[in-house]
Design goal:
Elements (H helix, E strand, L loop, with lengths): L8 H22 L10 H6 L3 H33 L8 H7 L6 H15 L5 H26 L3 H8 L4 H12 L1 H17 L2 H7 L6 H10 L3 H23 L4 E2 L2 E2 L1
């Protein structure tokens, strides 16, 4: 144990047992039929399953709407938090991130009960409101982190060259904050598509998302098709990460 690299062995074991092995099992089950034979039928079934395709389309729609709501609410909040002239207390940032310290299921149950007390009819509106509450910190924090580390000399230089405050924001601040926006979109969009508990509690299961279809198949002992749907979701997550992630390029004061 004298070498530093040996201290990484417990983490390697953890990754193998709880990350690599479950992913491998998903692939194995997805490519097997009920008798254990190799097949692609579970994958192709998704593209002919009208219920699954309809649920997937609804999931994408809800995810896009929730991501836009979080972005419209989250960017101004992150901008204010990162601006020392507008926010003079570090405690304010903690208050925005505080909901992340509470279990997501507890937040969802509390939100559903709040809607019931207020007499709201559970449906798409309450679903989007609840999701925005749950995922808004995941949009605020990456944008806030990028804005906080940004080299503000670029903004000062633009202002010295005659740019108006709106031009400085559009041509300097906003482009430099795009890595935070991309991270926020990724952290909100993908969990929204794959969630199931939030939609169940906030709509009384009136609206099913893709995660619900996977859960129903697993609970019905249809392991192979459920694994195939999970594999499709993993591929979508991977492709989305590649598109939104890209390669970070280091610059003075932040990343773009």
């Amino acid at each position: 144990m004298g070498k530093r690299s040996n201290w990484a062995i417990p983490y390697l074991i953890f990754l193998v047992l709880f990350v690599a092995l479950p992913l491998l099992l998903i692939v194995v089950y997805a490519l097997q039929d009920g008798n254990g034979g190799f097949t692609f039928s579970n994958i192709t079934r998704f593209f002919t399953d009208k219920d699954a395709l309809s649920t997937f389309a609804v999931s994408i729609e809800v995810a896009i709407e929730n991501t836009l709501i979080c972005l419209l609410l989250g960017y101004p909040a992150a901008y204010i938090l990162a601006n020392k002239n507008l926010n003079k207390s570090a405690v304010t940032a903690i208050l925005f991130i505080l909901p992340m310290w509470i279990n997501a299921l507890m937040r969802t149950l509390a939100t559903a009960e709040l809607f019931n007390v207020m007499g709201f009819t559970l449906g798409k509106g309450t679903l989007l409101m609840g999701m925005a509450y749950d995922y808004l910190p995941f949009m605020i924090y990456p944008i806030y982190n990028v804005l906080l580390k940004m080299d503000h000399s670029y903004e000062e230089a633009a202002a010295d060259l005659g740019a108006t405050p709106s031009q400085v924001f559009r041509k300097v601040t906003l482009p430099l904050s795009m890595p935070g926006i991309s991270s926020g979109i990724l952290m909100v969009f993908m969990p929204t598509v794959s969630t199931f508990a939030i939609s169940e509690f906030l709509t009384n299961n009136k609206i099913k998302l893709f995660g619900t279809i996977i859960q129903e198949n697993i609970n019905s002992s249809m392991w192979n098709y459920g694994a195939a749907l999970s594999l499709i979701m993993l591929v979508i997550i991977g492709l989305t990460t590649l598109v939104l992630g890209g390669e970070d390029r280091e610059i003075e004061g932040g990343t773009v």
